[in-house]
Amino acid sequence: MNKPKQKIYLTPTPVRIWHWLNAFGFLALILSGAQIRYPEFVNFFGSYKAAIRLHDTAGIVVSISFCLWLTYYLVVARSLLKLYVPSGEDLRRGLFRQLLFYFFNYFRGKPNPHVTTPDNKFNPLQKSAYLVIMMVLVPLVILTGFMLMNIELLRPLVLFLGGIKLIAGAHFLLACVLIAFLFTHVYLATLGHTPFAHFKPMWTGWEEHEEDERKST
Question: What are the angstrom distances between the C-alpha of 56 and each of 22, 28, 49, 86, 191?
Answer without folding.
Answer: 14, 10, 11, 34, 35
